[in-house]
Amino acid sequence: MKEKRLEEMEAFIGERNTVKMNELAEHFGMSMSTLRRDLDKLASENKIVKSYGSVSLTRPSVSFLHSQNTIHMQEKKKIASFAARLIDNGDIIFIDSGSTCGLITDFIPDDFHVTIITNNLDVIIRGMRKENLDIYSIPGKLNRKNNSFSYMQDCNPYKDYNIGKIFVSCAGIDIEYGISHNEVSERTIKKYAIERTTNRILLADSTKFGHIAPLHVCEIKAFSILCTNEQPPEAYIDYCLQNRVQLIYE
């Protein structure tokens, strides 16, 4: 029980880079004394770094990568299945980094021929078993934390592709601050992909709403469709209605 909680806590910290201790205590429903003991355990294993009132991940450990890919798995699968229904036979699409985006290929019908451009290693691995998918990967360095490739050149890697739809992930979604992300290189790739088409689909689970990551990507209204796993807060529903963003959540 405790080991599972520690894995989930490590994944929670890793997804946000830095987390305040009171936020951790509230999220996991524990007292500060119990939280400090758990954090001391993670710190002793060199998995986190504690600073005044907050903690951050030292590096992407094996347990973190495993937890990142399994935590909230049912919610991620639901969102990925919603996204896959938006794909038509013959489409040329871009699939972004992120564990939810990495599941989309599982739900593409076997009789659909689809061309995929991606920087997501999970998309490549999971898509290899489906002969109906043509997969192109951008060149770059593998980011082991997120299972994605970071583009290393100062030009748009998608400029020669006729991309019809893009499926994009994010670290945070907020009405005032828009779509945000943690990684500079991944944020750049998202912005390049957004330039290629107006048919843009955003994938964001319920934990991303109201969260603000360090790097601004774009406004929510830059997307035509937002897929999530449950009904978002009323303010987001109103925003999407006002800005003609289609919400898909059930």
From TrEMBL:
Keywords: DNA-binding, Transcription, Transcription regulation. Residues 2-57 form the HTH deoR-type domain. One of its GO terms (molecular function) is DNA binding. InterPro entries: Carb_Metab_HTH_regulators, DeoR-like_C, DeoR_HTH, NagB/RpiA_transferase-like, Tscrpt_reg_HTH_DeoR_CS, WH-like_DNA-bd_sf, WH_DNA-bd_sf. Pfam families: DeoRC (PF00455), HTH_DeoR (PF08220). This is DeoR/GlpR family DNA-binding transcription regulator. The lineage of its organism: Bacteria, Bacillati, Bacillota, Clostridia, Lachnospirales.
